[in-house]
């Protein structure tokens, strides 16, 4: 079936009918979504969302739910329906803000169309929109997805009065990390206990389920791989014994869920890998293969259910080919994307760290006006945010700092945004200077050319003003991290604070020099007073 199997004890990858009979229900929509103007574009953030809906028999209802989630910046990758489980799974990717809104609207449309009091199917369910996980893809972290999940959960209750539970990385208690614990008893059980059993209280909403849409689970998790291995035997007991050996809950591999089934006449070990980076797929395959040999059987084939990250296949290639000193940047397409996207220096990681920063340092040293102090200040602020982000990330989740998990998650999410804004300001500062020079040149050459000068100066002052404010916030967050993070990393925070304060001072100087020019060439511009008020506010906070 689909990656929704990842979120349940009953794996949807187990299809009760031959695959060729169910093929029409499985509908990948990359081409269709392109025709219907799903906007992928060049996103600075990319998040996957895989909402599971309790409807797998009425295509018109699923069509309506998909239609509700159509937004610019959201791209539909996959759509699957299963009539026996009476469940559908929609796979979306998109920009951070847009995909949150798409998920919220999908839940609302499901609540409008699906009545759980009349719903029957093999798959356990507690909501019309049963589970809505967010998965980081590019430019966002798992912690960012936690923040997104909490926002989406709050909005679902606010707009549709569907109570929401948070799970996996977004869970508010350890017991709610596992979806099965939340969904125990399904819709009917939660409906009967939500008002009287403390452990059933939702994270968002009142102590009552929606009368027909139930409750929804929203969370953040890593990418999950749903995979099945078929054995050359029809003895399902063998598959069940292997599944028991491989799954973590009965002493097997960490981050593996497994069950044994009879599918199309063959015994099948069906698995969900909840963290393939720590327990890679090739290791699981070899484990199953060795266990199978105990019973005199072998794997005859395997299948991936839904989508799989490229990295997982790269790990398999490294493992089975025994490639020495392998890293993903050796793959042509990866290197091309990283270099052209500015995420890697030419020569790759083997060129050393200096290869990534040397070109910028040389540009600063060149006898040209740009890049200058404003760009350097922005770069310093971005590095400060990066250091503080690293310290918070390495402390979050550790036993000694569990009581600070909420503060660390909030800091990580905010630092990620600040880092991106400061990085963008490196080029923006240089561009704003060039715009000022162009405006002054036009003033000399054209009769009305001077009209562009005030706007150009506003931008030239506005960019470093934003840098100064962001750098001040980075410094504040880094200071707040000191008592709640590993003390052995205190030197990294000291460096982060020093860089942030240097960025603040450098950016402030750039604001002042541009304001001086405005006082001469555009003395009546209201931006001058506004900028000075913001600078004064910064001074009072720092």
Quick recap of the structure?
By secondary structure, this protein is α+β, with helices and mostly antiparallel strands. It has 17 helices and twelve strands. Strands 1, 2, 3, 4, 5, 6, 7 and 8 form an eight-stranded mixed β-sheet that branches. The protein has a four-stranded antiparallel β-sheet with strand order 10-11-9-12.
Distance between the termini: 55 Å
The portion of residues assigned to helices is 40-55%
Rg, nearest Å: 27 Å
Low-confidence stretches: 1-43
**What best-fitting shape do the alpha-carbon axes yield?**
globular
Task: State the total count of DSSP E strands.
Answer: 12
Order of helices and strands: HEHEEHEEHEHEHHEEHEEHEHHHHHHHH
The chain-level structural class is: alpha+beta
Number of helices: 17
Overall pLDDT level: 85
Give the amount of beta strand, in percent: 5-15%
* Largest beta-sheet characterization: 8 strands, mixed
SSE map:
Elements: H1 19-22, E1 26-27, H2 30-35, E2 46-49, E3 52-53, H3 59-68, E4 74-82, E5 87-94, H4 96-113, E6 129-138, H5 142-160, E7 164-168, H6 179-183, H7 186-193, E8 216-220, E9 225-231, H8 236-246, E10 256-263, E11 266-273, H9 281-294, E12 299-305, H10 310-321, H11 332-340, H12 354-365, H13 373-395, H14 405-445, H15 453-481, H16 490-521, H17 527-541
Helix pairs in contact: 3-4, 4-5, 5-14, 8-9, 13-14, 13-15, 13-16, 14-15, 15-16, 15-17
Structure description:
49% of the residues lie in helices and 14% in strands. It contains 17 helices and 12 strands. By secondary structure, it is an alpha+beta fold.
């Amino acid at each position: 079936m689909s990656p929704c199997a990842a979120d349940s004890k009953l794996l949807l990858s187990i299809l009760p009918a031959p695959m060729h009979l169910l093929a029409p229900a499985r509908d990948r929509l990359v081409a269709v979504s392109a025709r219907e103007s799903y906007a992928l574009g060049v996103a600075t953030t990319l998040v996957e969302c895989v909402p599971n809906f309790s409807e797998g028999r009425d295509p018109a209802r699923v069509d309506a739910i998909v239609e509700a989630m159509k937004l610019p910046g959201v791209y539909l990758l996959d759509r699957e329906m299963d009539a026996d489980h009476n469940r559908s799974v929609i796979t979306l990717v998109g920009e951070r803000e847009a995909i949150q809104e798409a998920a919220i609207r999908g839940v609302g449309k499901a609540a409008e169309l699906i009545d759980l009091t009349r719903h029957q199917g093999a798959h356990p369910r507690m909501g019309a929109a049963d589970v809505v996980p967010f998965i980081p893809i590019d430019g966002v972290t798992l912690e960012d997805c936690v923040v997104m999940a909490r926002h989406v959960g709050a909005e679902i209750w606010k707009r549709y009065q569907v109570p929401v539970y948070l799970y996996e990385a977004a869970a508010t208690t350890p017991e709610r990390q596992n979806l099965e614990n939340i969904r125990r008893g399904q819709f009917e059980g939660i409906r009967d206990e939500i008002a009287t059993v403390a452990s059933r209280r939702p994270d968002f909403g009142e102590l009552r389920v929606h009368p027909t849409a139930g409750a929804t689970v929203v969370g953040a998790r890593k990418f999950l791989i749903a995979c099945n291995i078929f054995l050359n035997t029809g003895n399902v007991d063998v598959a069940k014994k292997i599944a028991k050996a491989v799954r973590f809950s009965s002493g097997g591999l960490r981050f593996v869920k497994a069950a044994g089934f009879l599918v199309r006449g063959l015994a099948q070990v069906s698995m969900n890998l909840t963290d393939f980076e720590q327990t890679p797929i090739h290791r699981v395959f070899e484990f199953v293969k060795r266990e199978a040999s105990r019973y005199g059987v072998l794997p005859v084939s395997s299948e991936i259910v839904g989508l799989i990250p490229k990295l997982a296949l790269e790990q398999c290639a490294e493992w089975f080919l025994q490639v020495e000193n392998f890293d993903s940047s050796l793959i042509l397409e990866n290197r091309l994307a990283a270099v052209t996207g500015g995420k890697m220096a030419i020569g790759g990681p083997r060129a050393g760290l200096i290869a990534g920063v040397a070109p910028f340092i040389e540009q600063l040293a060149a006898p040209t006006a740009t890049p200058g102090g404003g760009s350097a200040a922005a770069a310093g602020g971005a590095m400060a945010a990066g250091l503080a982000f690293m310290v918070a990330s390495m402390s979050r989740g550790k036993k000694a700092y569990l009581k600070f998990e909420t503060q660390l998650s909030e800091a990580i999410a905010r630092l990620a945004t600040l880092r991106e804004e400061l990085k963008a300001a490196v080029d923006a500062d240089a561009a704003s200077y060039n715009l000022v020079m162009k405006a002054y040149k036009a003033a000399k050459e054209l009769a009305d050319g001077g009209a562009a000068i005030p706007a150009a100066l506003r931008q030239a002052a506005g960019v470093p003003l934003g840098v100064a404010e962001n750098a001040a916030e980075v410094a504040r967050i880094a200071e707040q991290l000191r008592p709640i993070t590993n003390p052995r990393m205190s030197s990294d925070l000291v460096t982060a604070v020093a860089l942030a304060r240097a960025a603040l001072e450098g950016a402030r100087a750039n604001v002042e020099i541009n304001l001086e020019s405005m006082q001469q060439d555009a003395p009546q511009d209201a931006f001058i007073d506004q900028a000075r008020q913001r600078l004064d506010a910064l001074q009072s906070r720092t």
